Amino acid sequence: MKMPAGLDIERLYDEHAQPLFAFLLNFTRDEADTRDLLQEIFVKLAREPKLLSGVRDERAFLIRLAHNAAIDLIRRRGARDRTRENFAAETVSPFAPARDPDEKYFRDELAAALAELPAEQRAVLHLKLWEELTFGEIAAALDIPPNTAASRYRYGIDKLRDRLRPIHEETRKAE
Amino acid sequence: MNEEMEPFERRLSRQPLRQIPAGWRAEILAVAVRESRVESREQANLRPSTLASRLSTILWPHPKAWAGLAAVWVLIFCVDFSMRDKSPVVAEKAAPPSPEVVAELKQQQRMLAELIGARDTSDADRSKLWTPQPRSERVEILMA
């Protein structure tokens, strides 16, 4: 699939679509919205190939694009869908299905606990835990100060710990 | 900023995330490629050479009609230019009033003064009225 300006859109998709999908799904908690946002990002890249010229870290740049697009989407959604966001855990889980019942229970509870966090804390947690970015990298990707990234992570992880501690302890003992 | 992970955080990070649906790849890339082609076509249409070729495509089917229209416009411009008024501007600068005009104005002034009851205005005062002054001051004198 050749692009007029020589942009290798297939390579970009193969290298970055999966992490962007996971990030957007965790942020929006809606599969249709995630697809629309991914489409929007790749169309933007295809229409403006110069966006990536001079970019050193493609992943960080794309996460930033994804984050901005997701924020725009949430603003567009308005009050109706902000309510939906609060019940997102009931609709979409960002985690792969588990066979083991204990693990399934833990993932479901984790998905629900994540959904209760503010979207900005969830974004930082996602990038730290599942993208393994440093606070500096997260700060660059989300255009926030590193200390803000660190404090959002701390608040978020403390809430998850409080909520999931009993399950975490229980399943650890079982192991 | 301590970035070391505790066991709880490590456990969270080990949870596998959902995979992107396989069918999305073809759909998303197809739309992206189509959009990029539209974009590049739009940009190409804005280039001067393309504009000229498009213009020639429009003009080519009836060259005589377009030439005739152009000739009519040239004719209109020529006629308009030849009929333009070349006489100098009539009054670029106001000339000083002639003695007759001054006398007439004095008479009118006198009549006005009589009408408003200033019959005892002396000749000296009247002559003072006609020293050229700004319009606003003239009104004040008239009303005095």
Describe this structure in words.
The complex is a heterodimer of chains A (175) and B (144). Chain A has 175 residues and is mainly alpha-helical. Chain A is built from nine helices and no strands. In chain A, helix 1 runs antiparallel to helix 2 and helix 1 packs across helix 3. Chain A is globular, with a radius of gyration of 17 Å. Chain A starts with 8 loop residues before the first helix and ends with a helix. Chain B has 144 residues and is mainly alpha-helical. Chain B is 66% helix and 0% strand. Chain B has seven helices and no strands. The longest helix of chain B has 22 residues. The chains are: A mainly alpha (175), B mainly alpha (144). Chains A and B meet through helix 1, helix 2, helix 6 and helix 9 of A and helix 1 and helix 2 of B.
Structural descriptors:
heterodimer; A: 175 residues; mainly alpha; 9 helices; globular; B: 144 residues; 7 helices; 0% strand
